[in-house]
Structure to design on (504 residues):
């Protein structure tokens, strides 16, 4: 059962980060694209919308931040070993 | 001492083959969608592998403790009945099994698992030397076999979900803008996979070198507490980085062109899935096969995109290679050990036995390299159209031109 649990855990993390982040990125792209205005697939033209564009950029930043934190989390052991501090104190062990 | 040096050189050679065998895992999709130029892609992947290798040692610890029962798990001293000479020959033979299998699958352009080749070789040599008791079966089952079976399916599922959502969400975005946006995302995720490859695969060779150093008493068994010597980490990082830079174009071609025709949104979803799974398993110390994950993800991205075609014949051939990787490398590992042992007993010299299998390794590797040069796949033709009639990794043009060159025997 121990093994099954480990596999389910990896699946859960995989779905949240591996499929969830691309989805957020895609939403960001939709917002950014709509915010930039221009001609859509169906030929209609829309005016630029700075607020939507900003929301898109915000979502991109969110994705980038999650990635950086995840990498720091992986390196936690090595950073602690060589430099003696925990880079991600806000994540429980 | 000479044997230890030979062994470390062989381990680094394995790391090198590991690098070029697996470049495709990270970069195949970016190369196939032209998000990155082939040369740029391999340089980027090489550097990131180098960096990744320094980030974590969890997997190296798994390799020193979970595969072979050479050292005592608690004290780190050698188990009774194993002398350093036998221990070294076991590791040496294991590496030979791993390298030869890696080169053979590369020749056919099959993205097989370098990790399984290595573990297979070690298990085979361990079995030949120590019998059933020499292998840590529960460790092998829990940390190698089981992840191997589960990983491609998990990765495929995650990538299929990701691909489906990404296409669904962006269906109204102008095509040009969508391609551009995802191309950037794809480069970022591919880089992540290259980084994670360093955290997972470079560790395996470090683990093997550490195991050898423990066997000869140069290193205490407690890697977790004391860390690894810096030169071990640095040399492994360099070997895998160089190997990645050389680029296994054959494997890249199979992954990028052979399985599915990939667009950049699919590439992004596939790489994101691979990166998430490899990084989380690196953190857990699971010695996962990055190849299985990457291949599963790419297949999943084909399944998840409405109307995409997956070449199941190519996928089936790969799956077959996966199944036999561990036993085949084990067989080579065991044969190497026996050969070395026989020569050792006959000549009375350790060096004669280990030297002989080293010479055989160099000879066979040279032969396979020569065969690959005959029908070359490199950065120039890596994206040539896939030959659906033969499903061969060598592009149709390359094969034809070589047939004309060779004089027939019946003249």
């Amino acid at each position: 059962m121990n093994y099954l649990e480990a596999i389910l855990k990896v699946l859960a993390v995989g779905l949240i980060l591996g499929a969830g982040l691309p989805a957020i990125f895609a939403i960001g792209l939709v917002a950014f694209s709509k915010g930039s205005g221009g001609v859509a697939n169906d030929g209609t033209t829309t005016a630029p919308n700075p607020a939507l564009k900003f929301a898109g950029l915000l979502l991109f930043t969110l994705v980038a931040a999650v990635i950086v934190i995840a990498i720091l989390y992986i390196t936690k052991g090595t950073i602690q070993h060589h430099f003696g501090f925990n880079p991600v104190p806000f994540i429980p062990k | 001492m000479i044997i230890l040096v030979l062994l470390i050189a062989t381990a680094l050679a394995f790391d090198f083959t590991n690098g070029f065998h697996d470049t495709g895992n990270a970069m195949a999709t970016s190369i196939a969608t032209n998000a990155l130029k082939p040369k740029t892609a391999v340089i980027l992947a090489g550097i990131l592998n180098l960096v990744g290798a320094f980030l974590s040692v969890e997997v190296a610890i798994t390799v020193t403790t979970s595969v072979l029962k050479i050292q005592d798990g608690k004290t780190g001293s050698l188990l009774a009945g194993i002398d350093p000479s036998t221990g070294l020959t076991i590791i040496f033979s294991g590496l030979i099994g791993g390298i030869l299998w890696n080169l053979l699958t590369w020749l056919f352009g099959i993205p097989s698992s370098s990790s399984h080749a290595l573990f297979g070789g070690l298990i085979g040599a361990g079995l030949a030397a120590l019998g059933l008791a020499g292998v840590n079966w529960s460790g092998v089952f829990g940390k190698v076999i089981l992840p191997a079976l589960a990983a491609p399916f998990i990765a495929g599922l995650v990538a299929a979900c990701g691909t489906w959502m990404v296409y669904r969400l962006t269906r109204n975005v102008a095509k040009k803008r969508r391609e551009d946006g995802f191309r950037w995302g794809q480069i970022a995720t591919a880089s992540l996979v290259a980084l994670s490859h360093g955290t997972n695969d470079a560790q395996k060779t470090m683990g093997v070198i550490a195991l050898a150093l423990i066997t000869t008493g140069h290193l205490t068994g407690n890697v977790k507490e004391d860390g690894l010597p810096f030169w071990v980490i640095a040399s492994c990082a360099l070997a895998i980085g160089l190997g990645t830079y050389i680029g296994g174009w054959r494997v890249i071609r199979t992954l990028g062109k052979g399985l599915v025709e990939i667009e950049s949104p699919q590439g992004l979803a596939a790489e994101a899935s691979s990166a998430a799974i490899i990084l989380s398993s690196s953190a857990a110390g699971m010695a996962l096969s990055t190849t299985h994950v990457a291949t599963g993800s790419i297949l999943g991205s084909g399944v998840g995109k409405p109307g995409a075609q997956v070449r199941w014949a190519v996928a089936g051939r790969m799956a077959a290679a996966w199944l036999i990787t561990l036993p085949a490398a084990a067989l080579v590992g065991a044969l190497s050990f026996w050969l070395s042992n026989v020569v050792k007993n006959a000549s009375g010299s350790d060096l004669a036995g280990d030297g002989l299998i080293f010479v055989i390794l160099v000879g066979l590797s040279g032969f396979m390299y020569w065969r690959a040069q005959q029908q070359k796949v490199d950065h120039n033709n890596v994206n040539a159209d896939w030959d659906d009639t033969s499903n061969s990794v060598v592009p149709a043009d390359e094969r034809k031109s070589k047939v004309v060159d060779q004089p027939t025997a019946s003249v």
